[in-house]
Amino acid sequence: MAVKNLGAKWFKLRGWKAFPFQKEVWKALSENKSGLLHATTGSGKTYAVWLGALACWSQVVSEQHTHKKMLQSKVPLTVLWITPMRALSADTYSALKTPLEELKLDWTIGIRTGDTSSYQKTKIINSPPSALVTTPESLSLLLTRSESLNNFAHLKLIVVDEWHELIGNKRGVLLQLALARLRKISPNVLTWGMSATLANLDYAFDVLNPTSNQRCIIQAETRRKIVIDTLFPDKRTRLSYYGHLGLMMLPYVLQEIERYSCSLIFTNTRAQCEMWYQALLEKKPEWAGEIALHHSSLDADARQWVEAAVKSGKLRAVICTSSLDLGVDFSPVEKVFQIGSPKSLGRLLQRAGRSGHSPGKVSRITIVPTYHLEYLEAAAVQLAIKFNRVEPRLSLEKPYDVLVQHMVSTAMSNGFVSEIFFQEVKSTYAYRNLTFAEWNWCIDFLHRGGDSLTAYPEYQRIKLDENNYWQLANANFGKRHLANIGTIVSESQVSVRYWKRGGSKKTLGSIEESFAARLKPGDHFILGGNLLEFVKIYQMIAYVRKGHGKKSYVPRWNGGRLSLSSEVSDAMLNQLELATQAIYKGPEMRFLKALLEIQQHVSAIPSSDRLLIEIWQSREGSHAFLYPFAGRGVHSGLAHLIAWRLATASENTFAMSVNDYGFELLSFKTIDWSTNITHALFDYDDLVNDIVSSLNAGETAKRRFREIAQISGLIFSNYQGSYKTARQLQASSSLFFDVFSQFDPDNRLLKQAEIEVLNQELEISRLGDALKKIQTMSLNFKIIQHPTPFSFPLVFERFQETLSTEKLTDRVQRMLESIQNDYPDRYYQ
Amino acid sequence: MHFEIECAGENILLLSDRALYWPKKKTLLIADVHLGKAEYFRKNGIPVPVGTTKLILFRLDKLITQYPTENIYFIGDLFHNPDFLSNELLSCFIEWRKRTVSVNCFLVTGNHDKVIDNHVITNNLHILSPSHHLSPFDLTHNFEGNSSMFQITGHVHPIYRLKKGSVEKIKFPCFVVRPKVLILPAFGEFVGGYKVSPQINQSIYLCCDQDIIGININ
Fold it and tell me: Do A813 and B217 touch (CB under 8 A)?
């Protein structure tokens, strides 16, 4: 028996009033509809869906039942609540629990994430709670256990929180596959998505509910006020021409922090996070204990402590990375800072939403540019948000690596029948266009390593049993598979512990193996704000003791780099257009006025009808800087394309560097750019062919292959306790890339790497648009004596790559000759 | 093709195909072939394409025809994992030995093939102790500090990363030559490497396509 008006009842009990959108969700759920709820953060999305579900399927415990009895209730698993982050899941868990207790309902609730103890994990499988909060990865793990499949048979509702965070990446694809699985087990299950920052609602609904024929999209009208501004230094501070740390802005950020009771300071990388924390403490030692840092390489305990401390208002400021991006309800936070470029509007809005996190309050975010060009970005971002131009997020198209992983997971649980499972996979949005031939390649890949012509002897991951079910072939492999499920790819990590006789159990956090390998005993590094002295590394654990002294390293963690969205870059170009007419609107542009005038004087301001090409001859070689303002991805594609076309015309080697505003080509041989760069170079025809050829010469596809190799189980980052035997099974993804390219060039995983580079990194469709646009622009060559304000950041950009068509020996000789010039005391032959 | 150097008074050729040739004794010296690595990966559910074993044996054939060879010394790690020798690998190996029956093959055992009890292999190879004296050289898989002889070793898979500025980087397998040591690059396919650099008293020789390029610091 459903409870009538349960939501309204509980709201009354709490003295709240339900928003219209909440009532709408309750109604839709009672009518058995799947849906998508779009409302700003902190407006009460969770209770809209949760109370709706409780009203439909829960019961009030009758008087005679004791409280104890209630806890032992046997309501089967009814609601699955999926959150994209562990930090968020604990929060969601307690939010969901409150009405259960206050209304004395017969439901229990559980939580299962990577941080859950193995005792709890087993308990969840043996006696599942009525509602389970989990992450996409944990859900995939649950689906590998045949016992837990039965648990899902009574599932009524799946809720996907922060759907925008998952829709555009491989985690989302993994979730789509898991949802298809669940729909098979419990055919009438409803699916609800929740989000605060989505531009394409119909699309987002379809990806989540590909089988639903009517779209139920509920959009809250409550629009929270977001105040975005930019932090300026005083006139005496000279901003650097490049730079990613932005520490010269520290004094101004300090002043701001003092004005608010609690602030979050977002940095774009973990290393930056550590450095800002150190710098803050150095300036304000009396704040020790009042400020903290939070990033994903810290130990779970440390992270949870920080989260709890923010919630209870104990901290003045937290320096954090995207690990605190999402939903956590930090009511005390009054102010958010974004150090450096926010890269996308969606992300900025998301972060802004961390402050003033309750209905009716104002969210405040201040952008803290780390170098001059980011003021331009700050101005552009504000303009774009004013016109509400948030980037749409699109699902990936049939990535083979995720599919292969899911197939192994499914083979592990109960096995699958090829044709039936194919239909199930095809019912997801991401794989709707999967062909049976592609499907069979995946089966062959798991069964024999490739299609039948190049079948690999001995190799087998799945095998066909007598009932025509594909089953896991080797239990050992299954263990490795479980330890590596998921699509978040990271370098293999080394955990960090204090060195103690008998061994310390307490983990401080983790660093990447490649960083750990470079440390010598006695070296100092910083982790979680602690200065640590490296003692030794043993069985994938780096032992440390408390450090003393000054000089220390900051670990480098390799994370993804985001490209500027076209929404932001278009807005930037608009601002520059105005600047060429000497119109400077807004504080950011007025701040940049002097600098842009210098740029105008020594070169020109990039504009949308003249493509600025700066030419510079340095000791290194001939540089050309081009500024199409099309985002990092497109520039990387353009740089590859142009370098390739130039190098095929005459043998040469180019180095490239790119950022969101433009790119640099560096020829080590002297080259006359003004005669070599013509409109023909930007020709649209043969784009795909030329790009693919250029990729083979570059390193991009190889880099991309790393992720694919890990997701599809070619390499394992996590060997769980079998370090010694694992040694003989280690090979880097680049070795795999080479061996595939040479011996199995038609391997679809290689093809996938190519496609991913084309679509995701180089953004081929945007690249095509950029080429067409350049055809309409005139080429504006400027010879410069020194790097200009616009080219300086490119000279210092660390992401650099080379593309070469020279004969290897010639190239080596040329490199050696120049080394000899640099160091005349070296002899070579 | 090759580059001639003098070690312990003997003329030795460094071959661009990652092997040493000692003309006086008509002997090839080869380290870290890691035969069966791909098979071992496949056995463990990791798909490595077929072809690396055949390519390795083909490269050996080529060397034997190019350089008149009576002996081949494998200086350790001929096999990646002697406990997992697949039938395919063994039959390839036997076939190769049939083709090269006139050549004496020796194996100085290394860390990967410490114990070999497979008859197919022991019937076709002379298994030597981990440190074999072949005057005037000591052949050991891994460098030993206390030897007074000129050592020829493998084990570390040396590679050199040629770098110009911060931008251009290429990796090469290489030979490392010190006053009383010569370290061979790994001969095998699908093997990684350890970065080395030229130092005083340590020259390196890059295997670059068909050429050997030496780098010294004087």
Answer: no
Measured between CA atoms, how close is B215 to chain A, in angstroms? 5
CA A517 from chain centre, in angstroms, equals: 26
Taking contacts as CB-CB distances below 8 angstroms, the residues of chain A near B213 are 809, 812-813, 816, 828-829
Contact at CB, B51 and A742, closer than 8 angstroms: yes
**CATH code of domain B2-215:** 3.60.21
Low-confidence ranges of chain A (pLDDT < 50): 1, 559-560, 720-725, 799, 823-829
**Residues 69..128 of B with a Cβ closer than 8 Å to A: which?**
80-81, 86, 88, 112
pLDDT tens for residues A374-395?
888 888 888 877 776 677 788 8
d(CA A242, CA A717): 35
Mean pLDDT over residues B46-75, rounded? 91
SS3 B3: strand
Written as six digits, the tokens of A164 are 């925008």
pLDDT of residue B59: 93
Using the beta-carbon criterion (under 8 Å), do A476 and B214 form an inter-chain contact?
no
Minimum distance, in Å, between the CA of residue A788 and any CA atom of chain B: 21
- CA neighbor of A253 nearest in space, from A265, A237, A270: A265
In this predicted model, what pLDDT tens digit does every residue of B139-166 receive, in sequence order? Answer: 999 988 878 889 999 999 999 988 766 5
Residues 6 or more apart whose Cβ sits within 8 Å of residue A203:
A392, A394
Domains of chain A: 6-219 (3.40.50.300), 226-386 (3.40.50.300), 400-483 (1.10.10), 493-546 (no CATH), 603-817 (no CATH)
Contacts of B51 in chain A (CB under 8 A): 742-743
Mutate to test the interface with B, among A653, A739, A811 (most CBs of B within 10 A): A739
B200 touches chain A (CB under 8 A): no
pLDDT digits (tens, 9 = 90+) for B99-111: 999 999 999 998 8
For tokens 């000089």, name the residue.
A551
Which residues of chain B lie closer than 8 angstroms to A477, CB-CB?
A: 44-45
* B172: closest chain A residue by CA: A812
Reported in sequence order, the residue ranges of A465-540 that DSSP labels E, i.e. its strands, are 470-472, 493-498, 507-512, 524-527, 530-538
The answer to whether A802 touches A653, Cβ cutoff 8 Å, is yes
Which A residues in the span 746-765 are in contact with B, Cβ-Cβ below 8 Å?
747
Structure confidence at residue A317 (pLDDT): 92
For residue A470, give the 3-state DSSP assignment. Answer: strand
